[in-house]
Amino acid sequence: MSEKERNEENISEEESLKDQVEEILDEAIGEAEGKGSESGQDEDYKSEKDKLKADLEKEKDKFLRLFAEFENYKRRTSKERIEMFKTAGQDVITSMLPVLDDLDRALNEITKAKDKDLLKGVQLIHNKFKETLRAKGLEQMEVKEGDFFDADVHEAITQIPAPSDKLKGRIVDVVEKGYKLGDRIIRYPKVVTGK
């Protein structure tokens, strides 16, 4: 038997099988409809159908709630992961801040000396260190004498009588610089306020 004849025979067998299944399904549907209307089970059929619809709606609602909860979970974890990456080096950077303060103090003292080569060398190290920290997200908070004191942003270490009326309730001196990492303040500027 050739391959073509085998394919035709398989197709005809599939068609006859398909026809038989359709006939059986048609008979079953006809019997179900006949029995429901003949024996008064039509009401039971409708109530069962309504019950199944209600169950389906309940499951759809559960599914939608679960899907929404999962989407919220994905969004929240994604946001937390991004925040974690932004502040991953916070401990290391915070521990480097005293070194940066020491470099600032060293620069101030070296500028008083006459040695220009020493000043130039320390300035290069200071600038490189500052730029490296800035690349990691560190930002110095701009606080200067005469700014309004804000307890949410500044840390007052003492209060002195204001040298002038303009400085009452304002910052008189900045003792230690403050820094931010991203949007988060990692060290509050320590200031002296006037009263």
TrEMBL record:
Subcellular location: Cytoplasm
Keyword Chaperone on entry: yes
Residues covered by region (Disordered): 1-50
Transmembrane segments: none
Compositional bias per record (Basic and acidic residues), positions renumbered to this chain: 1-21
Keyword Ribonucleoprotein on entry: no
Family classification: Belongs to the GrpE family.
PANTHER family referenced in this protein's UniProt entry, alphabetically: GRPE PROTEIN (PTHR21237), GRPE PROTEIN HOMOLOG, MITOCHONDRIAL (PTHR21237:SF23)
Primary role: Participates actively in the response to hyperosmotic and heat shock by preventing the aggregation of stress-denatured proteins, in association with DnaK and GrpE. It is the nucleotide exchange factor for DnaK and may function as a thermosensor. Unfolded proteins bind initially to DnaJ; upon interaction with the DnaJ-bound protein, DnaK hydrolyzes its bound ATP, resulting in the formation of a stable complex. GrpE releases ADP from DnaK; ATP binding to DnaK triggers the release of the substrate protein, thus completing the reaction cycle.
Summary of subunit composition and partner proteins: Homodimer.
Full protein name: Protein GrpE
Origin organism lineage: Bacteria, Pseudomonadati, Bacteroidota, Flavobacteriia, Flavobacteriales
Gene name of the record: grpE
